[in-house]
Design brief:
The protein is mainly α. It folds into two domains: 58 residues, Arc Repressor Mutant, subunit A, CATH 1.10.10; 120 residues. Helices cover 62% and strands 0% of the residues. The chain is built from eleven helices and no strands. The protein is elongated and about 65 Å long. The two termini are 34 Å apart.
């Protein structure tokens, strides 16, 4: 099950119309603006206006500029927030370690496909061609999470858990491009079965 992240804007929108929303601390205000900006950036790219973002955040444009200085700085901060792998690491760590191997593979692919689909959408909207701004250290952390999850199944695997983790990443990334799935849309369970069993019958493999 995908981890649902709660926007800081919820606390504002749930305030009774008769009550005045309490001012947010600066860091919370920045976070709320980023949450409001991300869907607009994915839709409009760098053509998104500060007015659109301010309206989505329920603030004046002046507040937006005081928080980030200018639109480019806001977009940069939003991109860094979007590509932060920490939520992915937490989602992978939340998968039940007692699940059967194939169910684990399917759950991992759900999270990875959601991650890569979002990344592709964001990079396309912004015209990004360089590698996303994710540190090598954090990338290693989510690979470590996959290794830890698969380690109990080493006796079932024909390759090391780390290799399986790379297989999963490759499949999740490739299937995140919609143009690759026009003729045949791969279901997550199908991809999990491919990793777990390959394409040959067990007696043939033996």
């Amino acid at each position: 099950m995908l981890t649902q992240l709660r926007s800081p804007l919820v606390s504002i929108s749930e305030t009774s119309p008769r009550e005045r929303a309490r001012p947010l601390p600066p860091d919370d205000r920045r976070e709320a603006i980023l949450w409001a900006a991300l869907p607009l950036i994915k839709e409009h790219g760098r053509n998104v206006s500060t007015r659109q973002i301010a309206e989505a955040a329920g603030i004046a444009e002046g507040t937006l500029f005081r928080a980030f200085g200018d639109k480019d700085s806001l977009i940069q901060a939003a991109v860094e927030r979007f590509f932060d792998p920490v939520p992915l690491i937490a989602a992978l760590r939340s998968i039940d370690p007692d699940l059967p191997l194939e169910q684990k593979l399917s759950d991992v692919l759900v999270h990875l496909r959601a991650r890569f689909t979002g990344m592709v959408t964001m990079m396309t909207a912004l015209g990004m061609s360089a590698r996303p701004p994710v540190s090598v250290e954090l990338t290693e952390q989510w690979m470590n999470a996959l290794r830890d999850l698969l380690a109990p199944h080493e006796a079932e695997l024909t390759v090391p858990p780390e290799t399986v983790a790379y297989y999963l990443r490759l499949l999740a990334f490739a299937s995140s491009f919609s143009q690759f799935n026009v003729a045949f849309e791969f279901a997550t369970d199908q991809l999990a079965s491919l990793v777990a069993h390959g394409v040959t019958r067990s007696e043939c493999a033996a």
